[in-house]
């Protein structure tokens, strides 16, 4: 059965498949979908660019790869701009710049260029990189998941470094929804575009097809990896190692759209090059921000907010620290989300 499914997926991808504490259950369906859904489809809606067949594939598997969606020219502009940000020639308000844990631990003086940077995050105020998030080629597909009124947040350019021997270039298996207080879950989608050829040698994405249908956000935490784990790279704790995985080999410009409950991660980069990808998380503009206090998500949201406060050098006594988790989540969502298509509807909370 599982073998048949993997074969169907492989045909679609045209590549070979490779082989505690008590917490309150977290609602993933709360928040009203302002987009009508049909009996046949739950995870996609009418109106976007996905064909009937493509919708069926996504419903079943929780991801879909669209080949050759973004041109080389556009990706080269994003790459050059990223390099300029890393060299300090461009300053982007609100941007988080992350370094691999092995570099952080080494305490060595690092070159001021992209070789020291693993990821930049939250580029919502960078007009060049936001060209990707607002690209009509991307948005025509996002409409099939989020409906006509679309916002983006949690934007990233990932620069997976050659593994320094610590295996810290891996990204543990996780669910993106663990980090998001937005509902409804099924109107959230990630777009992830390869900025060069990606395969297992440079740490392509790996997904567990169909895992989105389980519907729950699992407990996450830092894996016990000898060589250390990057900041905020939480992984699923109770994971069955035997679950079939699919490695998404992609060419430059290919884009995968995936559901936020889909279990995914990425392997070690065994090459000498930096593996680049650009991505954004899209959701229905009038999404609801929920209170995650006491749920499996609390740890992630608290850590994310702490990182943002630290980055803005707002000390422990700053009034923000006294806000409720829910108010913080609303504030940070408002600060990072940008409406990219349709009506600028208010966030619900
Ligand atoms: O690009 C990667 O290596 C993994 C990205 C990812 O899963 C994430 O940042 O949530």
Question: Can you characterise this structure?
Answer:
- There is one protein chain.
- The strands form four sheets. Strands 1, 2, 3, 4, 7, 12, 14 and 16 form an eight-stranded antiparallel beta sheet that branches. A four-stranded antiparallel beta sheet has the order 5-13-8-11, covered by helices on one side. The chain has a two-stranded antiparallel ribbon with strand order 6-15.
- The protein has 349 residues and is of the alpha+beta class.
- The longest helix has 15 residues, at 72-86.
- It has a single domain (60-341), classed as Jelly Rolls (Sandwich), CATH 2.60.120.620.
- The protein is globular and about 55 Å long.
- It has helices at residues 2-13, 52-61, 72-86, 101-106, 130-133, 136-146, 298-311, 325-336, and strands at 63-66, 96-98, 119-121, 150-160, 171-174, 182-183, 189-194, 205-207, 220-221, 235-236, 246-248, 255-258, 264-266, 275-284, 288-289, 338-341.
- Residues 156, 158, 160, 171, 176, 205, 264, 266, 277 line the site of 2-oxoglutaric acid (AKG).
- 2-oxoglutaric acid (AKG) binds next to strand 4 and strand 13.
Poorly predicted residue ranges: 15-25
What proportion of the residues form beta strands (DSSP E)?
15-25%
Structural class: alpha+beta
CATH homologous superfamily grouping: q2cbj1_9rhob like domain
CATH structural class:
Mainly Beta
Q: How does the major sheet shape up?
A: 8 strands, antiparallel
Query: Which molecules are bound besides the chains?
Result: 2-oxoglutaric acid
Q: What count of structural domains?
A: 1
N→C terminal distance? 43 Å
| Helical residue percent band | 10-25%
Task: Count every helix, treating DSSP H or I runs of 4 or more residues as helices.
Answer: 8
Rough shape? Answer: globular
Q: Output the helix-strand order.
A: HHEHEHEHHEEEEEEEEEEEEHHE
* Number of strand elements: 16
Give the CATH architecture.
Sandwich
Assign the CATH topology. Answer: Jelly Rolls
What average pLDDT do the residues reach?
88
Alpha-carbon Rg, integer: 19 Å
GO biological process, one term: fatty acid alpha-oxidation
Pathway: Lipid metabolism; fatty acid metabolism
Pfam families: PhyH
Protein name: Phytanoyl-CoA dioxygenase, peroxisomal
């Amino acid at each position: 059965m599982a073998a048949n499914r993997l074969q169907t997926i492989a045909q679609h991808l045209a590549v070979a498949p490779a082989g505690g504490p008590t917490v309150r259950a977290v609602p993933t369906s709360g928040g009203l979908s302002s987009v009508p859904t049909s009996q046949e489809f739950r995870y996609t809606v009418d109106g976007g660019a996905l064909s009937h067949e493509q919708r069926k594939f996504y419903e079943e598997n929780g991801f879909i790869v669209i080949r050759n969606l973004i041109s080389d020219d556009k990706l080269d502009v994003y790459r050059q701009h990223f390099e300029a940000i890393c060299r300090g020639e461009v300053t982007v308000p609100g941007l988080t710049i992350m370094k691999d844990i092995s570099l952080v631990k080494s305490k060595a003086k690092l070159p001021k260029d992209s070789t020291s940077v693993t990821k930049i995050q939250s580029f919502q105020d960078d007009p060049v990189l936001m060209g990707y998030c607002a690209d009509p080629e991307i948005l025509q597909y996002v409409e099939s998941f989020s409906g006509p009124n679309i916002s983006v947040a949690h934007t990233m350019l990932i620069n997976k470094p050659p593994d320094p021997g610590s295996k810290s270039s891996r990204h543990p298996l996780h669910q993106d929804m663990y980090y998001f207080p937005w509902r409804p879950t099924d109107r959230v989608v990630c777009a992830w575009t390869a900025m060069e050829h990606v395969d297992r040698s440079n740490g392509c994405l790996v997904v567990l097809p169909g895992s989105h249908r389980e519907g729950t956000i699992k407990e996450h935490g830092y894996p016990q990896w000898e060589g250390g784990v990057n900041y905020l790279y939480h992984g699923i704790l109770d994971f069955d190692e035997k679950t079939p995985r699919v490695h998404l080999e992609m060419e430059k410009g290919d884009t995968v759209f995936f559901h936020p409950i889909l279990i995914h991660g990425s392997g070690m980069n065994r090459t000498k090059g930096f593996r680049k990808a650009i991505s954004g998380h899209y959701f229905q503009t009038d999404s609801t921000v929920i209170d995650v206090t006491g749920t499996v998500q609390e740890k992630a949201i608290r850590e994310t907010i702490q990182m943002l406060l630290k980055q803005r050098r707002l000390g422990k006594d700053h009034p923000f620290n006294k806000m409720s988790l829910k108010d913080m989540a609303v504030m940070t969502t408002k600060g990072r989300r940008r409406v990219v298509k349709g009506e600028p509807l208010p966030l619900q909370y």
